[in-house]
C-alpha cells in the first residue's frame, strides 16, 4: 500500500502538529495533533496505536516533517469539516442546501469515528428542522411559508429523500417519520425519476437519491395514512359535527356543512395534512359563526379512536405519526385499503405503476434498469363475445365491426 502524495495541503494545517492525515481520494493532507484527535474519538486513538504496514522506520518517504502519515478513505471536504468542528466547534445553519451537506458530512464521519458529542449536536440540529413533534412541525412550516426561495429552492432547501437516506445511513431514527411524511407529498413517479432540482445538486456529501425497497413500502403506507386522516377530518370531524347545547349561532350546523363542502372540493393529493388541519382549526376558532363546543355524531365511523374535536384530532395525529406507517404490511395496504387512493384522485395508471415497480424491486432488478422504462400496458384476459383480439368490446355493433375486419 502506497501513501498518497501530500502536495495539496488542506485546511487546517498546524505547523506544530505531530501527525498527518492524507485522503486517498484527491490526495489532501492535514497536519494535526494526535492528542486532540484521540481525545475526541476512540477510533482515532486505536488507529494511531495500530502499526501501519507502509510506515517502516527505515523508509524515509513514509515520514513527512518528522510526522507519521495516515491514509484516510474519506472525502477531503468532509474530513476538513470534521477536523475544524473538533477544534473550533460545528457551524450549523439553514441558509442554503450546502448547509445540509455540511451537516450530512459531519454526521456521517462523527458516526463512523464514534465522536459522540459531535454526532449528538448534528442530530439535535437536524431535528430542529425535521422535527418529531407537532410543535416542531408547525414551527418549521411557518418558517417555510415566510422564507423566500434561494436559487429556486424553497426552505429547508433539501429534498426529504436525502434526509431520509441520511437518517437511514447514520441510524438517526428520530428524523425518519418527518422525512417520510414530507416525502409522501411528492408523486411516486417523480421520486423514482429523481430529477427534482434539490436532488440534482452535485456535492461530495450528497446522500443517495434512490428510494430503498423498505422505504418504498413505508412511503406507500404513509401516503395512505395521510389520505385516510384527511378524509376523516373533512367528513367526520367537520361534516358530522353536532352543535353544543349552548350554541349561540343558529346556523352553526349549516356553516359546518358549507365548510365541509368547501374542504371536499379544495383538498388535493399533495395537501399537507398537518398544516391543512391547523389552518382549518384556526379559521373555526377565529370565526364567530362556529360554536366552541359540540362534537361528532355518535353514529360516525370512529377511524382514530374517541376523537370528537379538531384539537383532539390534531393531537391524535402526533401520537400516531411515528408508528402508523410501520404497523401494517404492504400487502394488507393494497388488499384492504388501496381503494382510498382512487378516491383521493390517484389514477389507475399511477396505482399500477406503483405495483409494477414493487414487483421489480422484489425480483432484484436495479433502479437504473426500470426507473425510466415505461410500465407495461394491461393485458385484457377473458373469453366470450365481450373480449376479442385482446380488446374489451362493449357493444354488439363493435363486435360486428371487428368480425368484418378479421374476415377481410
Task: Give a quick precis of the structure.
The protein has 408 residues and is of the alpha+beta class. It has 18 helices and 8 strands.
Description:
The protein is of the alpha+beta class. The chain has 4 domains: 89 residues, Potassium Channel Kv1.1, Chain A (2-Layer Sandwich); 122 residues, no CATH class; 111 residues, no CATH class; 31 residues, no CATH class. Helix content is 50%, strand content 6%. The protein has a 4-stranded mixed β-sheet. Helix 4 runs antiparallel to helix 5, helix 7 packs antiparallel against helix 8 and helix 10 runs antiparallel to helix 11. The longest helix is centred in the middle third of the chain and has 26 residues. This is Small ribosomal subunit protein mS41. One of its GO terms (cellular component) is mitochondrion. Belongs to the mitochondrion-specific ribosomal protein mS41 family.
What structural class is derived from the secondary structure elements?
A: alpha+beta
Q: Which series of helices and strands comes N to C?
A: EEHHEEHHHHHHHHEHHEHHHHHEEH
Mean pLDDT: 74
> pLDDT below 50 for ≥5 consecutive residues: which ranges?
296-308, 318-341, 382-391
3D shape: elongated
Query: Radius of gyration, rounded?
Result: 29 Å
Individual helix count: 18
- Strand order of the biggest β-sheet: 2-1-4-3
Oligomer classification: single chain
Number of β-strand runs: 8
Main location: mitochondrion
Family: Belongs to the mitochondrion-specific ribosomal protein mS41 family.
Subcellular location: Mitochondrion
InterPro entries: BTB/POZ_dom, Ribosomal_mS41, SAM_Ribosomal_mS41, SKP1/BTB/POZ_sf
Amino acid at each position: 500500500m502506497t501513501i498518497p502524495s501530500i502536495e495539496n495541503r488542506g485546511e487546517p494545517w498546524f505547523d506544530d502538529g505531530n501527525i498527518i492525515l492524507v485522503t486517498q481520494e484527491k490526495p489532501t493532507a492535514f497536519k494535526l495533533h494526535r492528542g486532540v484527535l484521540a481525545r475526541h474519538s476512540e477510533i482515532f486513538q486505536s488507529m494511531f496505536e495500530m502499526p501501519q504496514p507502509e510506515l517502516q522506520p527505515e523508509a524515509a518517504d513514509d515520514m513527512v516533517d518528522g510526522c507519521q502519515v495516515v491514509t484516510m478513505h474519506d472525502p477531503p471536504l468532509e474530513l476538513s469539516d470534521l477536523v475544524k468542528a473538533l477544534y473550533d466547534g460545528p457551524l450549523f445553519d439553514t441558509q442554503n442546501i450546502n448547509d445540509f451537506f455540511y451537516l450530512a458530512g459531519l454526521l456521517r464521519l462523527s458516526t463512523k469515528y464514534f465522536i459522540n458529542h459531535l454526532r449528538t449536536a448534528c442530530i439535535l440540529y437536524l431535528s430542529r428542522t425535521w422535527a418529531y413533534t407537532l410543535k416542531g412541525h408547525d414551527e418549521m412550516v411557518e418558517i417555510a411559508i415566510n422564507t423566500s426561495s434561494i436559487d429556486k429552492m424553497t426552505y429547508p432547501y433539501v429534498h426529504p429523500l436525502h434526509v431520509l437516506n441520511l437518517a437511514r445511513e447514520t441510524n438517526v431514527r428520530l428524523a425518519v417519520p418527518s422525512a417520510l411524511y414530507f416525502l409522501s407529498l411528492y408523486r411516486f413517479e417523480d421520486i423514482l425519476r429523481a430529477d427534482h432540482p434539490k436532488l440534482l445538486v452535485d456535492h461530495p456529501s450528497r446522500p443517495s437519491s434512490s428510494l430503498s425497497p423498505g422505504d418504498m413500502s413505508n412511503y406507500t403506507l404513509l401516503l395512505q395514512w395521510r389520505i385516510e386522516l384527511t378524509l376523516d377530518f373533512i367528513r367526520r370531524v367537520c361534516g358530522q359535527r353536532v352543535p353544543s347545547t349552548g350554541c349561540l349561532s343558529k346556523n352553526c350546523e349549516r356553516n359546518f356543512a358549507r365548510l365541509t363542502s368547501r374542504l371536499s372540493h379544495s383538498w388535493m393529493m399533495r395537501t399537507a395534512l398537518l398544516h391543512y388541519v391547523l389552518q382549518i382549526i384556526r379559521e373555526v376558532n377565529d370565526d364567530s359563526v362556529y360554536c366552541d363546543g359540540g362534537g361528532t355524531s355518535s353514529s360516525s365511523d370512529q377511524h382514530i379512536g374517541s376523537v370528537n374535536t379538531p384539537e383532539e384530532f390534531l393531537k391524535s395525529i402526533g401520537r400516531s405519526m411515528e408508528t402508523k406507517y410501520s404497523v401494517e404490511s404492504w400487502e394488507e395496504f393494497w388488499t384492504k385499503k388501496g381503494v382510498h387512493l382512487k378516491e383521493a384522485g390517484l389514477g389507475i395508471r399511477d396505482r399500477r405503476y406503483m405495483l409494477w415497480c414493487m414487483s421489480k424491486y422484489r425480483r432484484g432488478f436495479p433502479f437504473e434498469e426500470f426507473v425510466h422504462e415505461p410500465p407495461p400496458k394491461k393485458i385484457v384476459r377473458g373469453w366470450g363475445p365481450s373480449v376479442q383480439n385482446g380488446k374489451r368490446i362493449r357493444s354488439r355493433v363493435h363486435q360486428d365491426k371487428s368480425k368484418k375486419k378479421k374476415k377481410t
